[in-house]
Amino acid sequence: MISSVRHDFGEFQSGFEQQFTFTFENAGDEPLKILKVRKNCGCAVLDLSSDVILPGKKGELTVSILPNSLEGPFTKFVFVETNDNKNPFRRLSISGNAVPLFTVLPRKYIYAERLKLNEIREHTFTLEKSDKEVRFAEPVVSCNYLVETNLSVIDDTTSRLTVKILPVKAIGD
Fold it and tell me: CB of 53 within 8 A of CB of 1?
């Protein structure tokens, strides 16, 4: 018997691990064997206390949601197969709303198309924090061309990032 087959984490910051422990109790006369435990996503880590639960004893299955592995509302499942003749398969459900620490608008990536030498390509992003305590550091850029960035604070929750790509011919090109 499982204490609960559903758990809702509610709303939480996606940058932090979430954990819930499902408890199994063996109300039968024979050892309860956990034959298989599967999950339907890579966002969770499962930790089973024991794969055999003696009569009258309890076992635990801890489900941990990895930091930054989910964004937005979600429902995920864990499937447990046992030697219980009456109820050999159980589906456990975890759900919640993983709020990212910040969102990037209009999108997270730049598609610069084909760059022309000496033609500046500029992109502006709005960074909206879900928590006022989040602080942005200066951007780190890796590019074959010269890139300039400017990060400016608009208000407590909004910043603007401007990225300028300066494709100039390098020595040896």
Answer: no
Q: What SS3 class is residue 119?
A: coil
Instruction: Dump pLDDT digits (tens) for 33-65.
Output: 999 999 998 999 999 999 999 999 999 999 999
Which residues are within 8 A (CB) of 27 and not within 5 positions of it... i.e. 6 or more apart?
1, 55, 56
Q: Give the pLDDT score at 172.
A: 47
pTM score: 0.68
Give me the half-sphere count of Cα atoms (radius 13 Å) on the Cβ side of residue 83.
13
- Structure tokens that stand for 92 in this block: 């456990």
**CA nearest neighbour of 64 among 131, 112, 135, 16:** 16
Q: Are strands 158-166 and 146-153 parallel, antiparallel or unpaired?
A: antiparallel
